[in-house]
Structures are given as C-alpha cells and as structure tokens.
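User: For a benchmark we're assembling, each entry needs the component sequences followed by a predicted structure for the full assembly. Here are entry 17's components. Please fill in the structure.
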Amino acid sequence: MIMQKRLDYSFNGYQVPRASRSPRGRGTVRKRPDSNRIQAFDILASVAGNLLQKNQSSIPDNAASAKDPLAVFGINIKENKQENQVGSFKEEQFENGTCSEVVSGCVPSLQGKHENQRVAGDSSFHDNHLEGQGQNVIEREDERVKLRSTNEKTIRIKNRSDGLIEPSQRASRDCSAENHVEKPSLEGHFRRNLDSLPNGSGTRKLLNRDDDENFVRSTELNSKNKIPDPPTDTIKVKDASPFVNDENNSGDNSVLENSEMMYPFKKRKFFYQTSSSTSDSWSHCQGTVDSSCTRVNGTNHGTGGTMHVIEESSSIADEEVHPESKGCNVKLSIKSFKVPELFIDIPETATIGSLKRTVMEAVTTILGDELHVGILLQGKKIRDDSKTLIQTGISQDDKRHRLGFMLEPRHNRISSSYNEDPCFLTTGSQPKLSRQSTSLMLQQGTYNVSRERSTVKIENCAEGDLNMVSSLGEASANNNNMSKCRALVTVPAINMDALAVVPYRRKSGNSYFGQRRIRRPFSVLEVEALVQAVEKLGTGRWRDVKQRAFDHAKHRTYVDLKDKWKTLVHTARISPQQRRGEPVPQELLDRVLSAHAYWSQQQCKHQFKSM
DNA sequence: TTTAGGG
DNA sequence: CCCTAAA
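Assistant: Structure for entry 17:
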C-alpha cells in the first residue's frame, strides 16, 4: 500500500499528458478511478505519443535512423537475408536499451527552460547523450507549462536508440518556426524531409496553416507522397462510376495502406494532468531544485551516457513508513521507462511506410493495453506492493541499488476476441504478406492484441491526440546486459509472473463489454481511400466499400465508413471555418460532394424506376 | 449481417 | 462513435 502510494506521488509529480476532450466535446473520456494506473498510463501515453510522433515524422535523414528506424523504439532488428522474401528478424538481445532509466533527485521545473532544453535535447533523437548536461528530466513543452506551479514536474520523453523511451518534445509547433535552423533535431529531420518533397510548396502551405496541426499535416504529407497514384479530382466516366478510378491502380488499397499509418495523433495541445495530491513531500522537495535540472546530490548519474541510475536521495521526511528513517524521502526521477523489446518480422520488400506502421502497431498494440508499472530492484521485480520502500531496500542509505521501472501490459496473455491484426502490410502494390509474417513477434510469441480491450486508456490517449501508446511486449530477459550498464535493470517486459501479480479484470471473451471504442479520426489518406471507393461503388454499399478500401483496417467497420461519409458530406457543406480536426483537402471534399450528388441521383432514379 | 439514420 | 430498427 505504501509502496503504491509512494509511486503515486512520484507520478503525481510528473506532468503527463491528459486526455483532452474531443474538439466537439463529444468524446467521452473515461477514466478509471484507479489513479495509479491512469497516471502510469498517461505517462505511457505520452511516451507513445512521442513514439508515434517520431515514428511518423518521416524518415529521418539521419543515417542511423534510416538504417534502423526501429532503433528509436529500442527495437533491434536482425535481418536474415537467407530468407529472401520474408526477412526474418530474430531475437536479439538488447545491447543497451533494456533498462529503465531512473534518476533520482528532484525533478526540476522547466520554467524558462523550454527553449534551452528543447534545443539541447532535440539535437538528435537518436543519440545517446540524453540529458547528459543536467537535463535529467523530461519535459513536456507546452505553453501550459508556464501555468504550472514550480512544484510540479514535467516529464519529457524522448525516444532513444538505446531503447529507452525518453521524453520528447513537440515536434510540430516548432516545425515551421524553425525552418531555417539547421539542427539535427527531429524537427530538422522533419523539415528536411518535407523540404525534399517534390512539392515543397504544398508542404509549407500545410505546415503553416495551423501550428497545432503541423504535425498532422506533416505526416500526412509525407504519407501522401507515398501514394502511388495521387488522387485526382478529375471526373471521368468509367464503368458505372463517373469518378476517377483506376482499376488497375491498386490505389485503393495502397492509399489505404498508407493511410494506416495515419494515426489519430494530431499535434494539438497537451494537457497536463495534475494530480490531486499535490501536497506530498515530493512536491516540497521540488522547490529546492532549480529549473536547470540539476541533479540532486550532485551526482550525475548517467551523465553523458545513458546509464540510468536511480539513486535515491534522501531528504525530507517520510512519515509513516519508517520511524528510523523519518525525515527521509526517497526521491526518484524516472527518466525513462523500459520498454519491452519488440521484434518485427517484415519482408525486405515492405515499404518504409509499412515498417512504420508495423512498428506503430506493435507499439500501440502492446502499450495500448492495460498498463502496469513494474518496479524492479536490482533486476528483480518487486511483487509485494504492500512493502515499504525501505523494507524493500529502497532507501536513502543505499544508493547503490538500482531501481527500474518498467511498463508492462496488464494482461499476461494474448487472448483477444477481437484479434485485430496488427499489421496492415497487405496492399495492392505490395505482395500480400501473410499475417504471420507481418505480425508482431514478441519473444514470447506473436502478439495479436486487440486494441479494443483497452478502450479506456486508449481513448484517453486518443482524445489527447498524440497519445497512443502501447507498451511492452517483452524484453529480453537478458541478465548479461546488466553488467554492461550498471544501474540498468533488465526486465523481462512481458513478465508473466509480474503480470500475474497484478490482478486485472481482463476482458476475456465478452466479459468486458460496453467499452466505447477508441476514437480514431480518419486521416486524409483514409478519407481519400473512402472517397475513391465511394465514387466507384456508391453510397449504399458500405460493406463493399469497406472490403475494397479498408479491408485491412480492422478498426474501420462499414458502419464507420458510412458514418465518415456522412460527416464528410456535412463537412464539405459547411464553411472551412467551421470545420474541425485535421483539415481535409478541399479537393477531396469537392469529390465528396460530387460523388454524393451523383449517387443520390442514382438512388432517386432507381427508386423512380422501381415505382 | 447490412443498411440507414438518429443520437 | 454508438445504438438499432429494418431489411
């Protein structure tokens, strides 16, 4: 109990993104009263959000990144060229990224440090330098930060090549603003990519239209560029459809495929969730830390490297726990969570987009589920939640022990009634990949997790836009790595045992019903796919539309498509100013109206005939 | 199961 | 997105 409470405090100290309500205030954010879980989730959400953000922000021209896009996820891929078509990726021990990173000390407030930290921290999301220079904490950059009290900490997570998820920055807002700055930052990658696009002008236009939407547009653009056959608004009569539609252009699927990577992560504002219990001892400590993120106790754990240490610094009192240690609180600053190692099995011929999507799926699939925070001490999982920190050995007296935090799914098995295929690699242009070959492979098996099960959380994320997260799958339980990085804790991510410890009312079968699905705004690409399909099939054959253009998007039902069409028509009819969400190109909206008019007319004719 | 529409 | 009557 106490342990939990302490953890809670710690998390309370972080500013984690909070789910925001949908623009129209219709989305329902359902949170469970379990604050611990939710907070942990939120953190994860932010992690995922960043993961996604980065993952989708085009391919960095960073050599390393380009070579190993998964690196940012701490995913090691081993390509086995022996198997030509389907490269097989085998398990590979984490070289350096299997630990959670924890740094003790108070988390500094970021006030007035945004720019600074951001720049420094973003120099490269691929390097390992981490906040070597005293930026041991992650921060979330957002105007709202300014509003927070100095007692609040922020968490910034950024992806690291070593598998540690680290806080991140906002990629979008600065996108356009720093166009001229040449920094190897994510934004830089982003920017360069955009600039290198064939039609840079269009890009810019999009990027500058709305800061908050930059991210979306950017990714969208990138994605769009992959569309084999750019949509056209030309209307020509062909077949029974007056709309463009190249039968031979596997465009239908391609588009959709591409659209798959368009997750509902719009770069919007981040909402920080402040814990209700703000007056804990931790908070008090905060006041002693300056915004430069100076480490408490003068110890620079992991400086310049990525070692993460967790060191507890002592100080203030800790009531109830231990009389003898009264006056001492264990302060922890969790720099990063350990993320399970993921294994991706994807054909060589798969596109980068596919890879991204696959990884994306893997991450969301895993993290999207019920999450749980595991605590590890010296590599051992602490199962007894009722133990006190000191009883467990976590105290100010011992600064040597390594504490690790890991994120793990709340479930220990993959029992999914929904079974959403995590991969959407099948496309018209790509050879069909068997699901097996594309599914996410985790060390302990294929992970075919349904996202539907974690609706609550995900919804929170989704509502908060950028926060889709997911978690872990499995981490290599490689104890050898531990020696490589002291202070690092190797954790078997999907530790069955660990999971078992946490009772979880899983939604086995149908026991967990009534859960609203996650909100997943249609991406422009999806809209395009939809429009194209409807142009061809009409507005009364949603099942066919689904089959034709969204066959592999399990989360899009024909009802969804129908609903989307409905909203598209509505959107097309209202003024641009009244539209919300990710802007849909006018060209598409025009097509929507045209198609809608055409098919409505057809419908009337039919009715007339039959009469 | 699909459609079609209201909520 | 959800819920459902109707087909």
